Structures are given as C-alpha cells and as structure tokens.
C-alpha cells in the first residue's frame, strides 16, 4: 500500500500544481497546455521530480480516452445554430485542409530529414490536425475576441479534423508496417470509417438525450455517471464497428447540444470540468513520456518543420479550403494562424512508437517540439494578430440565453390529488406544459425548491409560474386541483426573470 499511497500523493501534487499554473495562463496569455507539459517534463526522469515513465502504449490509451471526452465536452458546449452557417466550409477545412497540410509537411520533411517518403508523410499526418483542447481553451479565453463566424469555423474544424488525422496516421502506420499493402484500399476505408462515425454519432446523440430524459433516476448524482458511460460507449461501439470513434463522440455532442434533456446545464458543466481533468492528465503523462535530452538533436529540424507548418502548410491549406467563401483574406489569414497543435499530435505520435515504426522515435521527438513551438508562438500571439489584422468581435459567452418575446406569466397554486397520474412522476416528466414551471413545492408543511428529478407525491401543493394558456390547459386536464388563497399571486414579466437569473 505504501507504493500506491506515494503514487497517489505524486499524482495529486502534479494535478494541483497544474491547476494553480492555469492562473499563469489566464494572466499572461500562456496556453495552459504548455504549462501542463512543462510540469510533466519537470516531474519526469530528466527533471527535478525524477519520475521515470516510458510506456508509450499506456500514454496512447490514456490519450485516446481523454481526447474522446475533450471532444465531447467541446461539442456539448457548441451551439448548433452558430456552426450551421459555416458547416460546409468547416467540414471541407477539416478534411481537405488536413490532407493538404499533411502532404505539404510530409514532402518538406523529406528535404530536411533522413526520413523515407512514407515516414515523412506519417510525420505530416501526425501534425496535420489542430488540437481541439488547445483551440477551445484559447478561443474561450477572456482576451480573445473574434467574430462569431470565425470562432465557429475554428471550433468546428478543431473538433472534427482529429478524425481525419487519426485515419491518415493509422493508414500510414499500416502501410509502413505491412509494405505489401496497397494504398488503393484507403479510399473505401476512409468512406466507411467516416460514414460509420457520423451515423453512429448522430444516432447515439439522440439515444443519449432520450435515455437521460427517460431514466428517471432517484439520485441526481447518477446522471453524470450515466452520461459518462454513454459517451465512452459511443466511442467504443464506433471503434469496434471500424468507424471513427472521435468523430462519433463529437457528432453525438453536437446533436445533444441542440436538444433538451434533464440537467442539461449541470451535465455541461460536469463534462467541462472532466475535460479539464483529462487535459491535465493527458499533458502531464505526455510530459513525463518525453525525454528532453532526446529532443536536443532534432531542434534544428524541428524549428524548420514548425516554421514551414505555421507559415506555409497551414495557411495554404486554409486558403485552398476557403477559396470563394464568405471569409475575406484577412479572416482566412487569422484562421491559418489559429492552427494550434497540442496533445492530439503528441498522442498520434505514440502510434508509430507502439507499432515499432523504424523512425517512430524521431517522429515523436520532432512532433513534441513542433507542439511546443506552436503553443508558444501561435498560442500567445492570437489576440495580437487578430487586432493587427482587424478581425475582432465580441467576447465569448459560454451560455447565451435567449429570453424570446415578452410573455406574461403569473403564479398559481395547485394541489396534487391522490388520483392524479402525476403522482410518483419526476417534475421533468410530469406532463406540465412547456411554458409552466414549478417554482415551489409545499409538502407536509415544509417548502422545497423542485428540480427536474424531484418526484411528486400526493397532496403536494405546487406553486406554478405559467402563462394564461398553460394554466387553462392545466385546468382542463384536471390532473391538478386549483386552489385560491395561501401563497400570494402576482404578475411577472418573463424576460425580467430570465435576466435576473443571468445576473
């Protein structure tokens, strides 16, 4: 037990240091991923911590799970209405743009390294995708103010292009480790993998929302557990069916973000916190995995490839993908600059290591250095570049609330008779009209504020906030008995109430 206790102490200390280090990110504009990686490297075998870790397979497994949860959180917090106008261009950028960037970097790598063409293309595939965790964290920072279409396009691209990078990486690893394989099989494999990922993701998104609404769990704390299990099930089922699990969880999250389900806000916050924990665990693990002494020999090559990626490959892939689009040249230039590389490329760089690709260690070390350069150079200069290009917009709002048209509501008191079919149901499934909200319940002389999961009992006295049409429907249904007196009635304006909830 002593060894386990020490391991737990070290893990908790590293997480605490990482959380506190995030304040530096907010204050000085340094990307959080860079700080998390630095903490991991300092704690590693060549740092002050002296923790030896050299298990690429374990790092890859942890990274895959973490990336799936991060993508789900990002999709869940993305409003479908904002990405719908840029959906076509976003998908084009995440597919063709990723492919172009991979090819350009691969061809350039053959000129500045000793890697073979296939190994060089594998390096290009590994670094071809932007990192969802890095992009979400930077774009939702307080100092970044971008126009809504630009922000939506970048978030959609970063959430969906991992699927393309994963496909290219696995395909090239297969071609290298099995020299007799034909590249012609890649096209049907791509169609199958992406098609299954999208279809299963869409279906599971609807299933997840339906399960959450119909589960009627007695304990609110079980809903996050249920949602977490459904997310991992979505990834696992898709991967088992030879689809792209990362695309599936992101699509499922987008589907859920546009639907109504019980505890939506609290579950969104839960997955946001879980995504941060996964980022910290993932970056710490990858920081422990790298040996700084092995990066020194590839510094020169790493600088050249990183510069080519940031200044040539990424911008060209953006310009080609967004030609004749609604985005002007300045916006396209900024989109090209917000091509942050993060944990996703480092995770993909573990695939060649695990598969035993001859140039796998070189690829991993070069990719790690490219990520450091991208985070340090691009991640810290996005607000400055946006201002210099004149591409600015409003600050990010994580939970915009649409109060809609003014609707007059009033408070009305009802009693739940024993014969009512609402007895034993949860408030969320009670059958109340959509414009009627239970704001207070009196039960056995005590008052409680109901939640969606609160189960109604006979003789409950309900204080409802509803418009006249909803109250008329409730009276006509006869499932509740209206009563006068008791709690005072008043007329309120719905937007005012909504605004107070925001403030």
Figure out the total of helices.
19
Average pLDDT, to the nearest integer? 83
Report low-confidence residues grouped into runs of 5 or more: 400-405, 485-503
The helix-strand sequence is HHHHHHHHHHHHHHHHHEEEEHEEH
Taking Cα atoms only, what radius of gyration do you get, to the nearest Å?
26 Å
The main β sheet shows up as:
6 strands, antiparallel
Number of discrete domains: 2
Strand content: 5-15%
Helical coverage, percent range: 55-70%
Question: What is the level 1 CATH name of the largest domain?
Answer: Mainly Alpha
The appropriate CATH architecture of the largest domain is Up-down Bundle
CATH topology of the largest domain: Na+/H+ antiporter like fold
Q: End-to-end span in angstroms? A: 49 Å
Number of strands: 6
Shape: elongated
Description:
With 503 residues, the protein is mainly α. It has 2 domains: 388 residues, Na+/H+ antiporter like fold, CATH 1.20.1530; 95 residues, Regulator of K+ conductance, C-terminal domain (Alpha-Beta Plaits, 2-Layer Sandwich). 64% of the residues lie in helices and 6% in strands. It has 19 helices and 6 strands. Helix 1 crosses helix 12 and helix 3 runs antiparallel to helix 12. The chain is elongated, with a radius of gyration of 26 Å.
């Amino acid at each position: 037990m002593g060894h386990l206790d020490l391991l737990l102490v070290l893990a908790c200390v590293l997480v605490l240091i990482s959380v506190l280090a995030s304040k530096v990110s907010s204050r000085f504009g340094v990307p959080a991923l860079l700080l998390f990686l630095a903490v991991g490297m300092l704690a590693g075998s060549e740092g002050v911590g002296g923790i030896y870790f050299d298990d690429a397979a374990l790092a890859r497994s942890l990274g895959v799970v973490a990336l799936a949860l991060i993508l789900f959180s990002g999709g869940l917090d993305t409003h479908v209405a904002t990405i719908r106008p840029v959906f076509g261009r976003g998908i084009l950028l995440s597919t063709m743009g990723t492919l172009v960037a991979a090819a350009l970097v691969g061809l350039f790598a053959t000129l500045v390294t000793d890697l073979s063409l296939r190994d060089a293309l594998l390096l290009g595939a590994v670094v071809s995708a932007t990192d969802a965790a890095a992009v979400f964290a930077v774009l939702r920072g307080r100092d970044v103010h971008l126009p809504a279409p630009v922000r939506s396009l970048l978030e959609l691209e970063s959430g969906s292009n991992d699927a393309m990078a994963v496909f290219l990486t696995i395909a090239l690893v297969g071609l290298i480790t099995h020299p007799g394989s034909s590249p012609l099989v890649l096209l049907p494999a791509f169609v199958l993998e992406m098609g299954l990922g999208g279809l299963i993701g869409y279906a599971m998104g609807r299933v997840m929302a339906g399960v959450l609404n119909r589960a009627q769990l007695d304990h609110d704390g079980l809903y996050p557990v249920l949602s977490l299990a459904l997310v991992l099930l979505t990834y696992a089922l898709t991967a088992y069916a030879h689809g792209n699990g990362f695309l599936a969880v992101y699509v499922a999250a987008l589907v859920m973000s546009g639907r109504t389900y019980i505890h939506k806000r609290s579950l969104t916050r839960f997955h946001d916190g879980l995504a941060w924990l996964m980022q910290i665990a993932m970056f710490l693990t990858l920081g422990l995995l790298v040996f700084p002494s092995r990066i020194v020999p590839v510094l020169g090559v790493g600088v050249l490839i990183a510069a080519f990626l940031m200044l040539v490959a990424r911008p060209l892939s953006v310009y080609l993908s967004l030609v004749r689009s609604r985005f002007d040249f300045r916006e396209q230039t900024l989109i090209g600059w917000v091509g942050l590389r993060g944990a996703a490329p480092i995770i993909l760089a573990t695939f060649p290591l695990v598969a035993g690709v001859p140039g796998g260690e070189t690829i991993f070390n070069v990719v790690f250095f490219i990520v450091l350069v991208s985070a340090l150079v691009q991640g810290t200069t996005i607000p400055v570049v946006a201002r210099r290009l004149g591409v600015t917009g409003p600050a990010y709002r994580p939970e915009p609330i649409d109060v809609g048209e003014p609707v007059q509501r009033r408070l009305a008191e009802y009693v739940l008779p024993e014969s009512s079919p609402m007895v034993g149901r949860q408030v969320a499934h009670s059958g109340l009209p959509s414009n009627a909200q239970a704001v207070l319940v009196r039960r056995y002389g005590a008052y409680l504020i109901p939640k969606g999961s609160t189960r109604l009992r006979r003789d409950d006295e309900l204080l409802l906030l509803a418009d006249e049409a909803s109250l008329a429907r409730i009276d006509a249904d006869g499932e509740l008995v209206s009563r006068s007196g008791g709690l005072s009635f008043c007329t309120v304006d719905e937007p005012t109430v909504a605004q107070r909830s925001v403030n």
